[in-house]
Design brief:
The chain is mainly alpha-helical. It has one domain. It is 67% helix and 0% strand. The longest helix is centred in the N-terminal third of the chain and has 22 residues. The chain starts with 13 loop residues before the first helix and ends in a 7-residue tail after the last helix. The model has no long low-confidence stretch (mean pLDDT 91).
């Protein structure tokens, strides 16, 4: 008998939304350091749709755009507060932390920041 994989958490769950902000921020920073450009809000929203679509989940466009905007705020804040070398290290840690088996104090701190962004005054209910 093949063991069944548990279903993914709902796309609109707090943990999933925080993880999407985290992954998008990592992607934004990676593109920034590699190409010197920031992805647009629409590009981020499309990326979220692609990621969720792999597990047959979805979020409304307004929510995807909101998460994209929050990830942009976080990514720009990180890039603005770190040297290039430290920023590249942060991106590396974030990308590695996308694997749930990877342990990182930096990634945990940034995930907590993603959760706090969800609690902000502009978060739709």
């Amino acid at each position: 008998m093949i063991p069944q994989t548990p279903p993914p958490p709902p796309a609109d769950g707090r943990g999933t939304r925080a993880a999407l902000i985290f992954a998008l921020a990592a992607e934004r920073l990676s593109i920034w350091y590699e190409h010197g450009q920031w992805p647009t809000e629409a590009q981020g929203a499309t990326l979220v749709a692609d990621w969720l679509g792999r597990t047959r989940r979805s979020l409304p466009l307004a929510e995807r755009r909101h998460l994209s905007d929050l990830s942009d705020q976080l990514a720009r804040r990180i890039a603005g507060s770190l040297s290039r070398e430290a920023g590249l290290y942060a991106v590396h840690e974030m990308m590695e932390a996308l694997d749930p088996n990877y342990e990182s104090d930096l990634a945990r701190a940034l995930m907590a920041e993603c959760e706090s962004l969800l609690d902000g005054p502009d978060t739709p209910e």
